[in-house]
């Protein structure tokens, strides 16, 4: 008889091929100039900043702003100066082209923490699609920044409209047991 611990089972939400081009387009405001990005972020000073990606996280830190939550994968080999920040460090596994339920759960947990401590999640794999659970579980008014390759930084402000749009996309993902 085989005994399994199902609490260790993880599920994967697989991105359908037909949605890949749709998700490659920027959702939100594309900033190609860091000065304009800084002015925009300062104008929204009561909003939590959430960064997804090494380059955009480093850009925000270089602008002397502290993200509430950062998701990085270390693939651009960026170094982050963490001396001036109180940090909660976490790790999740998340392969390209999917979103692991365990990653969703960790993101949800971190978004619910109401503290000034900055949180950094190191993603073993790829962090790009993790914008989806951030939109779903983030607060209205949260600002998500993610990189648009060869273009700049995209700013997405969470509200009910964008949350509904993202949920509509997410319901098209296929669910399988992760290996």
H/E element order: EHEHEHEEEHEHEEHE
- The secondary-structure class comes to alpha/beta
Instruction: Provide the helix percentage.
Output: 25-40%
Global Rg = 16 Å
* Overall outline: globular
Beta-strand content estimate: 25-35%
How many individual β-strands? 10
The domain count comes to 1
Oligomer: single chain
Q: Treating each run of at least 4 consecutive H or I residues as one helix, how many helices?
A: 6
Q: Which consecutive residue ranges, at least 5 long each, have pLDDT under 50?
A: none
Main pleated sheet:
7 strands, mixed
Structure explained in plain terms:
It is a single chain. The chain is an alpha/beta fold. The chain has one domain (11-177). The chain is built from six helices and ten strands, in the order E-H-E-H-E-H-E-E-E-H-E-H-E-E-H-E. The strands form two sheets. Strands 2-9-8-3-4-7-5 form a seven-stranded mixed β-sheet, sandwiched between helices. Strands 6-1-10 form a three-stranded antiparallel β-sheet.
